[in-house]
């Protein structure tokens, strides 16, 4: 039985600055909205992954993390991408992300092929097994994500203020800023034989230790990513 989709988020991704400045986002959003209109689906939010390679996993995608935080809390039916290559370029990462979303009962739709990728994924017995393995941890993770949502919203409101205050002078131009960059670098360092922490996990750890931005506000995954990319942390 085909799943009825009434509401959805649009997920866009480009991997280079030229695509950000060009029509990459516009083209993707237009195709997604055209598909949604044909099928009576309301697009309730648009999430843009800027400058993120298609080979990167969930832990390096702040917009994807934010989208999943919200979708688990508000019950939006699906995520629509222009095509599966906009989700990820490699088969391994595609399957990881699809299994992750499927385990949380989130439908993934390709506007280009009009296929429900989640349903197709579940139809394959081996891929379905991956979903079941992830599903063991789904309920616990969902509860933790929803609990963090309220704090994340407050922190996001402070993000624009961070950009104004800390953007006037580079962090690498002051002693306090350089010290903060070293702290971030320490938290971002990948332990031997361990998976590198996501931006969300690093931001959570910094906040838990009482380490604030130079503006005195809490860290958010997206703002932390901007700092890491800008200063090569």
UniProtKB/TrEMBL annotation:
InterPro entries associated with the record: Recombinase_CS (IPR006118), Resolv_N (IPR006119), Resolvase-like_N_sf (IPR036162), SSR_resolvase (IPR050639)
Catalytic residue list: 15 (o-(5'-phospho-dna)-serine intermediate)
Domain Resolvase/invertase-type recombinase catalytic residues, every copy: 7-160
Swiss-Prot/TrEMBL keywords: DNA integration, DNA recombination, DNA-binding
Positions of transmembrane segments: none
Cited Pfam families: Resolvase (PF00239)
This protein's name: Resolvase/invertase-type recombinase catalytic domain-containing protein
Lineage of source species: Bacteria, Pseudomonadati, Thermodesulfobacteriota, Desulfobacteria, Desulfobacterales
């Amino acid at each position: 039985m085909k799943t009825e989709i009434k509401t959805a988020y649009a997920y866009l991704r480009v991997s280079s600055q030229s695509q950000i400045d060009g029509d990459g986002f516009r083209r993707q959003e237009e195709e997604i909205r055209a598909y949604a209109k044909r099928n009576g689906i309301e697009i309730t939010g648009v999430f843009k992954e800027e400058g993120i390679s298609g080979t990167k996993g969930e832990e390096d995608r702040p917009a994807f993390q934010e989208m999943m935080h919200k979708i688990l809390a508000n019950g939006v039916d699906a995520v629509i991408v222009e095509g599966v290559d906009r989700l990820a370029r490699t088969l391994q990462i595609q399957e990881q992300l699809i299994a992750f979303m499927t385990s949380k009962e989130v439908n993934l739709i390709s506007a280009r092929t009009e296929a429900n990728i989640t349903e197709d994924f579940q139809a394959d017995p081996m891929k379905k097994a991956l979903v079941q393995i992830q599903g063991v941890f789904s309920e616990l993770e969902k509860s933790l994500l929803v609990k963090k949502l309220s704090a994340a919203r407050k922190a996001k409101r402070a993000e624009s203020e961070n950009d104004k205050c800390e953007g006037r002078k580079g962090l690498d131009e002051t002693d306090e800023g350089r010290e903060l960059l070293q702290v971030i670098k320490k938290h971002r360092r990948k332990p031997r034989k361990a998976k590198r922490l996501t931006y969300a996990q690093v931001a959570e750890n910094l906040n838990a230790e009482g380490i604030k931005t130079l503006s005195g506000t809490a860290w958010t995954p997206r703002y932390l990513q901007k700092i890491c990319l800008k200063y090569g942390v």
